[in-house]
Known about the structure:
- The protein is an alpha+beta fold.
- Helices cover 35% and strands 24% of the residues.
- The strands form four sheets. It has an eight-stranded mixed beta sheet, sandwiched between helices.
- The longest helix has 22 residues, at 166-187.
- It starts with a helix and ends in a 20-residue tail after the last helix.
Amino acid sequence: MSEDNSLITQRRDKLKGLRDAGVAFPNNFVPSHQARALHAEHDGSEKQEFDAREIEVSVAGRLMSRRDMGKTTFAGVRDVSGEIQLFVNKGVSGEAIHTAFGNLDIGDIIGVRGVLFMTKTGELSVKVTNLQLLTKSLRPLPEKFHGLSDTETRYRQRYVDLIMNEDTRRTFRLRTEIISYVRDFLIDRQFLEVETPMMHVIPGGATARPFVTHHNTLDMPLYLRVAPELYLKRLVVGGFERVFEINRNFRNEGLSTRHNPEFTMLEFYQAYATYEDLMNLTEALFRGLAEDVIGSTNIPTEDGEGSFDFAKPFTRLSLFDSILQYNDGLTADSINTLEAASDVARSMKVSVKPNWGLGKVQMEIFEVSVEENLHNPTFITMYPTEVSPLSRRNDDDPSVSDRFELFVGGREIANGFSELNDAEDQAERFQAQVAEMDAGDDEAMHFDADYVRALEYGLPPTAGEGIGIDRLVMLLTASPSIRDVVLFPHMRPEATQ
């Protein structure tokens, strides 16, 4: 029998004794204080202040450490706010409590009552006068000094990861603060938060491969949404001129450090605005997140050896110009015809397909040779219309669209554009997408007749944007993988499952 199995057996025996005594899993303890609040109020107080009056408290949490010193035991109990020290002494607490405390295991969840005092070393502590075992922990926690270090186990057993790793707890607290800041930022600017369907009759709003499910009563396929875009723009047609949604998207694509099959997106739409207005808004949002949530406009890189500067104005560069800037030796003539650009792409090991146009080839060249070089915040603008089926064509050059993507650290963080509100143009682009689907592109869009009908009622000039919340949290917490910022990332089942 392994050591872990032996320890589990011992703990199960203890639980059996509690069951036999009728005291297993009580639900009648209510703590009066949390650890952080006690430290905030009393740390630094003089010993005489505690001697002058008894400050009675009750706290509850997980037993994380203990030091047995004969008749006295010091222990650390942690609740959601932090940790506080317990003091159990046979003479002060009583022999019964001292004995019961000795039978506890690290990981048990307990409730204690007692009085505050300051130890000789200046550590705020609770002198325990009453003890209750609330939940018996049957599995031993990882060894304290090594913690839960195996990456795969951390992702699979996030509950243990949260128990053992303060960095993990900090990351997910920051995630909540980031989302709250984004929500307040938009509401302060008169955006209305809405909810749109997550099961679609046809997938739309992005070029992505969907998950397919089936509705039994209607006997029809449904698709988990790849984006809420088309529904949100229907709301703008209906008169809600500023809307946003923070919710899940689902894309049946690969797994990587940047991709999870389900992920959280922010999408927002503003009538009577252009993509340039949204670039300004996005820059203000990101700078505010850095200053107000993180506390600095210099955001550390994940390797800790550099930083991203959010204080300076973000760089703005067209996709065409970015290719020339980051590829020495290329000229405009090298990429402004399909034949020439295809030759450049092939030299970069891109497999050019027969149905690709010039815009698609330029996009592939950009992804291969430019993206990873965009370190500090950079807006790439003027994407080819061919790869932007929902974007408004540029008035001066219809071959490109009024679109941008924001890159930081070589990663796309946001995508926005002036919306296409010409119903006939939109119908033609949907038809082109259907042709690509028929040619074998499983990420191409379907023809959405109802959305075209909505546009025929009239969509005001509008700009919209999507920001990947998971990638945003990765950026602001210097996390190397999307699995570090998603509480329960998707993984292959364990062999035992």
